[in-house]
Structure formats: structure tokens, C-alpha cells
Design goal:
The chain is α+β, with helices and mostly antiparallel strands. It has helices spanning 30-49, 63-71; strands spanning 5-8, 15-18. It has a two-stranded antiparallel ribbon with strand order 1-2. 4% of the residues are buried. The mean pLDDT is 78. The structure holds zinc ion. It holds the Pfam family YacG. Residues 48-72 are annotated as: Disordered.
């Protein structure tokens, strides 16, 4: 063993070296790392801005909202 450890990139599943000289570890590249962070960011954004519709069943819904739902 020479201490080199290889892991699968979480984004593209490519085998990549997990070591101090790989700044993108555990990802294989800046692109894969950016894609993963982007997914996290968009997930946070969605959760923060859109409350679940059925979280509060007693909350009154405006007629305008219902009209919009019927259109879809
Ligand atoms: Zn990758």
C-alpha cells in the first residue's frame, strides 16, 4: 500500500484519487464538484421559498390559487 486511495466521484461515478493533491476530492473535477453544490443550492432554494402545500390543512387557500390549479 502506498497510501493512495481511490473513490468513485459522487457525481459521475468515475474513479478518482482521494488525496491532498486533489482539490476536488471526493469529486474527480471542478465541474463535478460544482454540479453537486449546484444541486444542493437549488434544493435549499426550493425548500426555503416554497412551503409544502399540505403542511397546514387548515390554512385557507385563495380562490385565485384554485383557479390556477384547475388550468394546469
Ligand atoms: Zn466526476
Amino acid at each position: 500500500m502506498n497510501g493512495v486511495r481511490e473513490v468513485h466521484c459522487p457525481t459521475c461515478r468515475q474513479l478518482t484519487v482521494y488525496a491532498a493533491d486533489n482539490p476536488w476530492r471526493p469529486f474527480c473535477s471542478a465541474r463535478c464538484r460544482g454540479m453537486d453544490l449546484g444541486a444542493w443550492a437549488s434544493e435549499d432554494y426550493r425548500v426555503a421559498t416554497t412551503p409544502p402545500a399540505d403542511a397546514d390543512p387548515d390554512a385557507p387557500r385563495s380562490p385565485i390559487d384554485r383557479e390556477g390549479d384547475r388550468d394546469r
